[in-house]
Amino acid sequence: MNALTGEKVAIVTAKPQTTRNRIIGVLEVAARKKVNPAAQIVFVDTPGVHKPSSHLDRRMLQEVHEALETRDVVLVLMDASRRVQLEAAGEPAEAHQRGKPNWASEEEFLFSLIRGLDCPVFLVLTKIDLVAKDVLLPLIETLTKQFNFAEVIPVSARKKDGLDLLVRKIVDALPVGERFYPKDQYTDQPMRFMVAELIRERILVDTGEEVPYAAAVVIEQFEEAEPPAPPRKKGQPPARLPLTRIAAAIYCERDGQKAILIGKGGSKLKEIGTGARKQIESLLGTRVYLELRVIVEPNWRESRPFVESLDWRNQLEKLAEKQHDK
Known about the structure:
The protein folds into two domains: 2-173, P-loop containing nucleotide triphosphate hydrolases (Rossmann fold), CATH 3.40.50.300; 191-325, 2-Layer Sandwich (GMP Synthetase, Chain A, domain 3). It has a three-stranded parallel sheet with strand order 3-4-5. It is 39% helix and 18% strand. The two termini are 39 Å apart. The chain is globular and about 55 Å long. The chain has 326 residues and is an alpha/beta fold.
């Protein structure tokens, strides 16, 4: 979705289950004579489909079901390079018992979700630049035996290969209707949520083992920068960019995870904060003062109230209530 919209709408890491919420990305498609009419495509990025084992997982699966209720086209994205590597390794089914996903089971779970749909379903194979054609074609044959896809489109976001074709096919399949969002809007997410996600992205990248999956980020303070100062006179140095002050809490489930997140002498937390701050400054176009703290919330992934509180829509409602009470 980031490659299609040209904006960083969703965080991306090599770890599975990076996405936890429905995320909307909006693409304006210009009319091209004899190719496609003008269109607005609203993409809804969902968490990856996997069998739930905690309340957080069940909430993520609920996000998938809710997205499927209001759709005109469904894109099933599969990482061709990862699947080929797993198949080539010849891992037995009992690999799941050792903590690795049983992909045959996960795929069947995915296909069970889409078999009842009454809309076009596209198979989109990603990262094809990492896969040889003589390996890719048998993979496509195997997957198309599972489901009668309306389209099978291999793409490479890194090389932007196949993206134009994908957009054209989506436009062809979409019904005619009114524009949902203004032309200059590329997502429905508030900045607070996007900032929290950028911090979580750094946690996913900078920590290993179980820590990334047991981590949640909540923005506690977001003081928007004052408007920039008026231009200085000719010959004077430019005014400094305004400063945005942000405080965020990183929740984890155990003291050991907290120790990992903080690191020796606070080194890991500083690393996470520095990496996140650079990304946030790029997003906001301001300088950023970022303060992070780590809190242990035992077994939060099984706590329905806590998991629900992470939904940015619920966070906005609470912020609105606080403003109303003042």
